[in-house]
Specification:
The complex is a heterodimer of chains A (124) and B (162).
Chain A (H helix, E strand, L loop, with lengths): L4 E5 L3 H13 L3 E5 L2 H10 L4 E5 L7 H11 L5 E5 L4 H9 L4 E4 L4 H16 L1
Parallel strand pairs in A: 1-2, 1-3, 3-4, 4-5
Chain B lengths: L8 E5 L3 H13 L3 E5 L2 H10 L2 E7 H4 L6 H8 L4 E6 L4 H9 L4 E4 L4 H26 L1 H9 L6 H5 L4
Parallel strand pairs in B: 1-2, 1-3, 3-4, 4-5
Helix pairs in contact in B: 2-4
The chains are: A alpha/beta (124), B alpha/beta (162).
């Protein structure tokens, strides 16, 4: 099994814990951040295969984080997840070339499949 | 590549004639060579003819038949850029359109100025797609010519390497 490394960004502790536990159980290397700013700090300190970020977060939302990530790390795939889907945010996210836009509540096994697929696509 | 003075070709794949005719009229007016098709067979036939850079395709029309008309279009010509028209403003449909390979989406009723902007970006992407496709198809030849110190041009590649 490949040990992928992902950065999970969500202001909700419950989601961070859920994703941390799940992906760690799969043998993946997971880091978590509670905000966009914290995520950028972590990204400057080490490499990741993918960023999985919530959309609606205070101060720096998922779209602002994506734009910053695309500028600083153009090859790094970003997957956005949201419990508040809207046409505008989906269009903005996908025009920013996010790897995917996942609507909560999600099936965690499907999320795993999407994340793994996007990492593999970007490593090809 | 599109030659200077040659009109860029757009296919409007839309089952509602009142919409497709309005789009065709507008796109012709702003300088495109626009063609209309309202069923899978005709759409595929137009793509097979070649030369179409952008397809404006209705989301529901895309879902008819085997459910992946855009996939079939890309199987014939992977460089074509698709703009999907959505009748229902739902995030799920937007995501589905992008997952199916759309370059962008427009929500009906169509804002023609928005469509014009998107079409311009779509043609830029189409040119990039064609260049990328051309290089990947001719990589061996390009490497061979580069090893010989030859400046590689598209015209040169269309002739056999002697």
């Amino acid at each position: 099994m490949n040990q992928h490394s992902i950065l999970v960004v969500d202001d909700e502790l419950l989601i961070r814990d859920l994703l941390y536990d799940f992906f760690t159980e799969q043998g993946w290397d997971i880091s978590v951040a509670e905000s966009g700013e914290k995520a950028l700090q972590i990204l400057r300190s080490r490499k990741f295969d993918l960023v999985l970020t919530d959309l609606k977060m205070p101060v720096m939302d998922g779209l602002a984080l994506t734009s910053q990530v695309k500028e600083e790390y153009p090859g790094l795939p970003v997957v956005i997840m949201t419990g508040y889907p809207s046409v505008d945010s989906a269009v903005s996210a996908l025009r920013q070339k996010v790897a995917d836009y996942i609507i909560k509540p999600f099936n965690i096994n499907q999320l795993y499949k999407v994340v793994e697929e996007k990492i593999n696509e970007h490593q090809d | 590549m599109t030659r200077a003075g040659e009109r860029k070709r757009i296919l409007i794949a839309e089952p509602d004639p009142s919409i497709s005719e309005a789009l065709r009229e507008f796109l012709e007016h702003v300088g495109y060579d626009a063609e209309v098709a309202d069923n899978q067979e005709d759409i595929v036939a137009v793509i097979k003819k070649g030369g179409t850079g952008v397809v404006i395709i209705d989301f529901l029309l895309n879902a008819t038949g085997d459910g992946d008309l855009l996939g079939n279009i890309h199987a014939i010509d992977p460089t074509v850029c698709a703009v999907m028209l959505l009748s229902f403003p739902l995030a799920e449909y937007v995501v589905s359109a992008f997952r199916k390979g759309a370059f962008d989406v427009v929500i009906k009723p169509v804002d023609l100025f928005e469509l014009d902007e998107i079409a311009k970006r779509a043609f830029k992407r189409y040119e990039l797609n064609k260049a990328y496709h051309f290089v990947s198809q001719n990589l061996e030849k390009i490497n061979e010519l580069a090893r010989r110190g030859v400046l590689v041009t598209q015209e040169l590649l269309s002739d056999p390497v002697s």
